[in-house]
Design a protein that fits this description.
It is a single chain. By secondary structure, this protein is of the alpha/beta class. Among the domains are: 109 residues; 212 residues, Spore Coat Polysaccharide Biosynthesis Protein SpsA, Chain A (Alpha-Beta Complex), CATH 3.90.550; 196 residues, Spore Coat Polysaccharide Biosynthesis Protein SpsA, Chain A (Alpha-Beta Complex), CATH 3.90.550; 133 residues, Jelly Rolls. The strands form six sheets. The protein has an eight-stranded mixed β-sheet with strand order 1-4-3-2-5-8-7-9, with helices on both faces.
Amino acid sequence: MPGLSRRESLRLAVILMTLSTAAYITYYFYSQAKPDRLRIEIDRLKDKIHYIEETAKNSNLTISGIKSGGKNIKQLVASYEQNINSLKQELSQSHKKIDKQQHAIAELHLENLKNDKPKLNNSAELAIKKLINGYKEEVVHLKEDLVEAKETILKQQQNISVISEENKKIQSKKEDVKTVNTDVNNGNTMEKREKTDLISADLSLPSIDKFLPHLANNPDALKPAAKESKGRTGVTLVIGIPTVKRSNANYLMQTLGSLLTQMNTDEKSKTLIVIFVAEKNPEYIASIKADISNKYLADLESGLIEIVSPSPAYYPDMTNLPRTYGDPLPRVKWRTKQNLDYAWIMMYSTKRGKYYLQLEDDVIAAKGFVSSIISYADSQSGNWFVIYYSELGFIGRLFKTSELGYMIDFLIMFHVDHPCDWIIENVLESKVCSVGVSTAQCNRSKKGITRQYKPSLFQHMGVNSSLAGKKQTLKSIRQLTSLVVNDENCSSARKYEDEIQKLKSQLQESDLNSLIKSNEVLQLKDRLASEQQKFLSISNNYNLLSNTTAQSADMSLSNRIHAPSIQNYLPHLKKKPHALIPSLKIGKNKLGATIVVGIPTVKRSKESYLVKTLGSLFNSMSDEEKEITIVVVFIAETNIKFIKDTAKVLSDKFSQYIASGLLEMIAPAADYYPDLTHLPLTLGDNIQRVRWRTKQNLDYAYLMMYVMNKGVYYVQLEDDVISAPNCISKMKNFAMKQRDQQWFVLLFSQLGFIGKLFRTENLAYMVNYMLMFHKDQPCDWLLDHILYSKVCSIDKSMRHCSLQKQKLSKRFRPSLFQHVGKHSSLAGKVQPLKDKSFRMGNLFVAHNNPPAKIKTTIKHHQSYSIEFAYNGKGMFWGVKPIKGDFIDIQLLKPVELRSICILSGNSEHPGDILNNAEVLVLQDGKEIKTENFVNIGKFNHGNFYHIFVKNNKMGKISSVKINILQNSMSWVIFRKVCYCMLVID
């Protein structure tokens, strides 16, 4: 028979390695089993394995032997298949023998305990007698403790009945507190209720129904459908275990058994285990309750274990979910529901303890895992966000309950977009990764807020996934197998992995069952713990009844889960909920607009551009555009004088727009802002810049909450920009033409956050992000993180990510807004930014005016003289006119006029307009005296236009004069067409 090729020899060598690994795995798991007779059986199997290896050596099945010639590879595979089958039979028989031996030992042990009759050898007999005597003494002490505890409970119950009337009064007051939905301890209830109504009317606060809109009209959907709970709170560790019905197996009882076995009494007192039955079927939920009650009744009664299930109305319709990552619809539904399940159990657990640990329903735990988790977490310094106690999936993730809001919000915001373990990566990146940094640098930053505990405290044991048809196998074995399954001659090796995996699972289950049996010895202690917990519960009730009205609001566990709120990220608002009421609100509260424009403004040390910004915007709009628009100016200051002064200036200049509902003004309460004196320094910024950008995020969030229900689209501007003509129509038309309904933001400027347009229904994403990360990132970077979180995959390249983000972000050209402010709202910062794609429009229009001699007392800037403008060669730019200044235009040859049009301001300087001025004319033939001039009108919002009646009695005009009536707050520009230039035709 010819020798094997080098390729076949290598394949055979890999097969040998695989078989050897399988044998070693089998040996390892059997070597860990108990009792000692199990090790004896394993030693015998070990000898069998060595025998097989010796047989292989004797058959010259080495690499060198294969090179020179050997058996056919198919025969070798068949031979090893026979050996494996033989080994499997031996293992199966040994397994049965071990079970029988374990059963016999257990029966013998129980019989000895019952009858106290020796049936073992002398040393075993003495040990058992000693154990029994110890048990007897402990039972006596336990019974005494139980009697004492019951007597104490009776006394406490008597105390409870004595204050029952007080309880009724407190419960009545408690309902008032719930109605107001605030923790404020003082104040009239009706006043609180009125203020709360104002809050709900003014601001649309972040809430779960922004992303699960089906919940908006169904508040009961957030109540548990079923709950077995003693209301344990104040623990150190809350363990959340969601469980679902699996088609082939259920590992929940094994998981619970492993956890309870590895916990001592002290650890149990610090822990709460929440079993979340994430199913709608009442019969299945009842069966889980029954299983747990039958086996772990003491732990249920002590409050260590709770069982909850959601309302079926909690879940949205999942029949038409968008397909992402190329996943089939069943998998998309599975991971979407998993995100919602994790969010629910986190909301339920968030107020129950210090730390929250996420597990799954198919894991086993290491001994003493509770103490290891708590001690390691308590020892960690720095601002960590998550600790990994396992390297698999979402198992063993530990969070501070105070920061669970981040995970809950992300799981709900992106429940359709990503699997849960990817979502946590998005949270980390949003907290610490700067836009544009390398992946390596981002990973280093993420490590700063994560911790990895070694060795892992949890191991995954389930073979059958909760996703129907999915198998859970170890990656390392899959990778090893892939080396030998690429050729048809080696295809037989595929089945070995499955056989080894099944044997491994059986061994794990056997070992776990052995551990669970040992837990039965602790039942008396568990009974005592249960009675002590009852005593503790009654004591807590007694103390709560003796506390103040405000504290009594927390007497019992709420029937609703705790969805994240603005107070999660601005905790100072818990004691100041009315800080969300605007300190100023001016306007008609118009609703139903097509476009809402938001303009936050702050006090600047050098110069304010707000009037120019508003003048430019209003002058760019047609009457039709004004009908479909709302402009909201947010005066983002707490100084009452500045707020009132700004409101007065805008009210005086734009009163007609306030009256029509086009313009609104609001300002926040001073208590809206948290303490900004001790912010963490991030991104290499100094404290002044960190405060500035932090406050800017809070400003934008407030403004967006206010406008969220006012229109269809929202565009963000700043208070130092100018607008292109008809920008409102251009934005509306561009938005409506987008066929791709997946866009998130439309860009009408290239600079910062200027000209960003959103659907108002998507503003909840922006609000949540700006509140969650107000201290961490600037606003424009947070927008980029939202886009990343929606469409970027952690297993894809940054180029792929950029392409996906472009689908959500559409650019309009040319830009519709230009930045004109030279001095930033950040003190000392100069802003030379200009949008190169912005089309300014004409600063003047050439025209033909009759020859004239012009006199003026207004100084002009550079070469921008009044003659330059009148002759149609440019514009006139005058320096701050004052009362008494004038412009006198004496026509060299009197003419009969049809109209006079004077427009001030231009697209670059829309605030340089003329107000508080009058226009007079002098008829031909009359002497140039003040009393001979005829007043034909005043400037209105920077413009003057007068039409002479046909065949007017004035006849020819020899002079036109403009008188300044009050000091101007700004310079003045004259041009033609839009905003400036004197035209006499």
